[in-house]
UniProtKB/TrEMBL annotation:
This enzyme's EC code(s): 4.3.99.3
Domain Radical SAM core: 30-209
GO MF entries: 4 iron, 4 sulfur cluster binding; carbon-nitrogen lyase activity; magnesium ion binding; S-adenosyl-L-methionine binding
Protein name: 7-carboxy-7-deazaguanine synthase
InterPro entries with a match to the protein in the record: 7-CO-7-deazaguanine_synth-like (IPR024924), Aldolase_TIM (IPR013785), rSAM (IPR007197), rSAM_sf (IPR058240)
Length: 209
C-alpha cells in the first residue's frame, strides 16, 4: 500500500472495504431488521471457526474513501451495521460521524479487542478467548453475544457476562457448524439461566446472504 494511502487509512478516512450489501440482520437483538452491512477487512483475533477468514488480511481489500461508502449506504437503509473482520482495528470516528450526519443508525459488531472509536447507537460485543475486550467496550456494550463452540464456552460466557453493564442483553449463539450438537445444550442452559437468550443465525436458515 502506498504511504499516502496508508496514512489516510490510519486516519480512518479510507477503509479496507471487503464488501457492502443490503440484507436482513440475522442475529441478536435486531434480527429481522433490514440493514446495510459494511464489512471492513483486517482482523488478527484469529477465531479458528470464523466464517469470513477472507476478511482477515486487510491488504486483500481495496482502501475505499468513506464518502463513497456513505453514499452507497444512504441509497438503501437508515440502519447501518459495520462488521468485519474486526472494525475497531481502524478509527471508526470519521465514518460514523459522516453516517450520523446523514441521520443513520450506526451499529457495530465487534470482538472489542481494540480501542472503542466511533459514534454508536448499538454495540454488539462478541468476545473471543484469544484476545479479550477492553474495559471500555464491556461498559459500552448493548448486547453480549457469545458464540458457543464447545462446553467450555458456557463458562467463558459467564465470565464475560460479569464484566458488562446491568442493562446489556445476553445472548448465546451456537457456532454454525456445531449447531445440531450445541443448540439443545444452549436451550437447556437458557432455561436454567433465564438471564440469557438464544440467538440463532436466522439469515442462514432463510438462505439470506
Amino acid at each position: 500500500m502506498k504511504k499516502e494511502v496508508q496514512q489516510l487509512v490510519d486516519k480512518g478516512v479510507m477503509l479496507p472495504l471487503m464488501e457492502e450489501f443490503y440484507s436482513i440482520q440475522g442475529e441478536g437483538f435486531h434480527k429481522g431488521t433490514a440493514a446495510y452491512f459494511i464489512r471492513v477487512g483486517g482482523c488478527d483475533v484469529g477465531c479458528h471457526w470464523c466464517d469470513v477468514k477472507e476478511s482477515w488480511n486487510a491488504e486483500l481489500h481495496p482502501p475505499t474513501a468513506i464518502e463513497a461508502i456513505v453514499e452507497n449506504a444512504a441509497k438503501y437503509s437508515k440502519t447501518i451495521v459495520i462488521t468485519g473482520g474486526e472494525p475497531l482495528t481502524w478509527d471508526m470516528e470519521p465514518l460514523t460521524e459522516m453516517l450520523k450526519e446523514k441521520g443513520m443508525q450506526t451499529h457495530i459488531e465487534t470482538s472489542g479487542a481494540y480501542k472503542l472509536t466511533g459514534i454508536w447507537d448499538w454495540i454488539c460485543l462478541s468476545p473471543k478467548k484469544m484476545k479479550l475486550p477492553t474495559e471500555e467496550v464491556y461498559k459500552a456494550a448493548n448486547e453480549l453475544k457469545v458464540i458457543v463452540f464447545n462446553n467450555d464456552d458456557f463458562r467463558f460466557a459467564e465470565e464475560q457476562a460479569a464484566k458488562v453493564g446491568p442493562d446489556c442483553i445476553l445472548y448465546l449463539q451456537p457456532e454454525w457448524s456445531k449447531r445440531e450438537k450445541m443448540s439443545p445444550l444452549i436451550v437447556d442452559y437458557v432455561m436454567q439461566n433465564p438471564k440469557w437468550k438464544v440467538s440463532l443465525q436466522t439469515h442462514k436458515y432463510l438462505n439470506i446472504p
